[in-house]
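Aggregate trends can hide what the representation actually does to any particular protein. In the encoding step, the backbone of a single protein was reduced to a row of integers, each denoting a local shape. The record that follows shows the chain in one-letter code together with its fold in token form.

***
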Amino acid sequence: MKSHKSVRLISGIVILSVVFTLASTAGPVMAADKEEAQGIVDKAKVTLEEFLRDKNYSWVNEHINKEKGVLIYPQVLKAGFILGGSGGTGVFLARNAKGEWSQPAFYTMGSVSFGLQIGGEAAEVIVLCMNQKAVDALMTSKVKFGGDTSIALGPVGAGAKSNVVADFVSFAKSKGLYAGLNLDGSVVDVREGLNQAYYGKSLTPIQIVVEKKATNPGSSALRAALKKAK
């Protein structure tokens, strides 16, 4: 009987130790994730402003406040190994009928190979959502560009004019220069952990973007920058 009691006692101590360990590490991990999330939002603002200032991307400036939403990736890395895998994390914001921009939801983007035309290893990327179909696709599941939704490279150059017909239109630059980044075949998926860290609770993109179940004042500068576009 004593041996059984000893086993139960030891088991209880082990379980309590695990619980206390998890409790002690959960806070720092969540704080780190929140810091990472805010960093992505801040960098997204910088990326957006760089595109808006660049005359070669005047089409972005002229259309961003006319379209349904935008994906902003401050850095998409080309790994250069294992089939040239590439990817990055960014934010998605949608614009409602009143012209108001939503809170950001976090999304990853990955591809076997993006094939940067200028041979760079990293790029800043903006993808405009041209219709409701594009927004709905991001709200419901992971999206494969060129699958159920179409994507096209956006017009580049001072005074560029073009009637692009696609669900998504992408723009990319690397080291301040045009990067003909082909996103066809790449996959965009929700970064659930960062969404939870940024808003303090588990939320779906619909709850963040459409239902406005949470806010974070850290996104105000990014949203203001979007509003300033022509």
